[in-house]
Amino acid sequence: MILVAQVSDTHFDLGTRNTERAQRVMAYLAELRRRPDVIVVTGDITDSGKPEQYAEARMSLQADLPVFAIPGNHDERIAFREVLLAAPPSDDPVNQAHRIGDLTLILLDSSVPGQSGGRLADETYDWLREMLAATPADDAVLLALHHPPVFLHSPIVDTIALAEPERLAEVIAGDPRVIGTLTGHAHTAGASTFAGRPLLIGPSTASVLGGEWELEPPERVMDYGPDPSVALHVIDDDHRLITHFRSVPMGGWIANPY
Question: Which of 61, 115, 227, 237 is surrounded by the fewest CB atoms within 10 Å?
Answer without folding.
Answer: 237
